Amino acid sequence: MKIRDNFFTEQEIEKLHKATVRVLTEVGVEFNTSDALELFRQNNVKVEGKKVFIDEDTLWKALKTVPSEFILSGRTEKDDVLVGGGKTIYAPASGPVYVQRNNERRSTTGEDYINLLKIFQTSDVIPVINANMTEPQDMDFEERDGFRLKKCLELTTKPLMGFTTGTEDSENCVRTIKGFYDDTDKHVVLGVISPVSPLCFDESMIEGMNVYARENQPVLIASCSLPGATSPVTMAGTLVTNNAEVLAGIVYTQLLRPGLPVIYGGTTPSCDMRMVTPAIGSPETGLFTYGYRALSAHYGMPCRSGGSLTDSNTVDMQAGIESTYSILSASIAGIDYVLQSCGILESFNSLCFEKIIIDEENIRMAKRYVSGFEITDETIAFDLIKQIGSEGTYITSDHTFANFRNSFIQAKLFSKVPYENWEMNEKKDVFQMAKEAVAQRLEEYKKPELTEVQAEYLNGIEVTV
């Protein structure tokens, strides 16, 4: 018994697909570079102005070349992760410019960035690192990417997500990481590509795809529209336009390099129509997640969604409830790659140290929840039930000792003690426990060893901060 499912009927998915094909063939998707338009023309795709019109045959021909899984490599083989192999990968935040720690909100600094790397490197639920998890504001814009890449390679060993904004940004990122690994064959960096809704790819994202395809590095293409503003207010309509955007991007990558690994993605939230702002901590966000999973499965490729999402401005009950809905939806859906899994507050704007720790605990619970339980002769244990009857106890049985660790999750953070014990421990709430865990993780962090070649390489990356 496992709690993973596709809640869409075949008829519903086919209806969404057919509507998507109509969008691709009748409405078109805008690509804002002449090189991209020329590539489509060379492959007999209809082009009018900046719009391309992709027919269904071209679509399926491209989709068939996308691998259903791939390896994203870290510093050592044990750091590698399989994307699309049936195991959900929970990934860090992406893009906040503020951090929160000790109930204080401020612009991210370089020191914050380093400490966040240490937290994610020591995480037992986050197996990848995102160079763009946040952006330090205490250094010149031109210094930020070099600083972040250098610190990622120096302080972590897990597979990396990189930068994709334009040719120079993408080339510097991919070549820096490849140079560190001294390996041109492996997939060592994952790039995130974001269409501009409705139905458009701008120059910077096209250039990012060009570079990653040329360097044979995987990309994640995900729409993030705002229903009622940049996509239809109805969820089905938004799924169709999002699907058209993502599929158009996937077709482009396969024209550039057939067989390039791509993750099908979506991170569209609900919309607070009172202010026309994203409402990421909503039940609709979870429903969109199920839609993305069903569509990606229909096309036979890995899927990405959002993670522990909330619109709350602080770590409170709202943050906990909203984050649980979204991370549990992704886990039940069997999403392959869950971005924004830990630490998000205020609609993607803040990354909170303490919430990272709390979200990690929530992810452990979600993983246990969806894993279900086995129903076998051993787990039913009829002979033991008969032996104990109505007068004995199971607590001292060999069966209990052999199975209790695999039967129940043991909380690392959340309190399970009686009130009196909690009172004796200064009545610490979950935020205080998380605050202490942050300090402990930072204190116990050990910098991974570098080879002489790697150390020399990193010394050659010049940053003034």
Automatic annotation (TrEMBL):
Gene Ontology process terms (BP): methanogenesis; methylation
Signal sequence region: none
Keyword annotations: Methyltransferase, Transferase
InterPro entries: MttB-like_sf, MTTB_MeTrfase
Keyword GTP-binding belongs to the record: no
GO molecular function annotations of the record: methyltransferase activity
Family (UniProt): Belongs to the trimethylamine methyltransferase family.
Name the record gives this protein: Trimethylamine---corrinoid protein Co-methyltransferase
Taxonomic source organism: Dethiosulfatibacter aminovorans DSM 17477
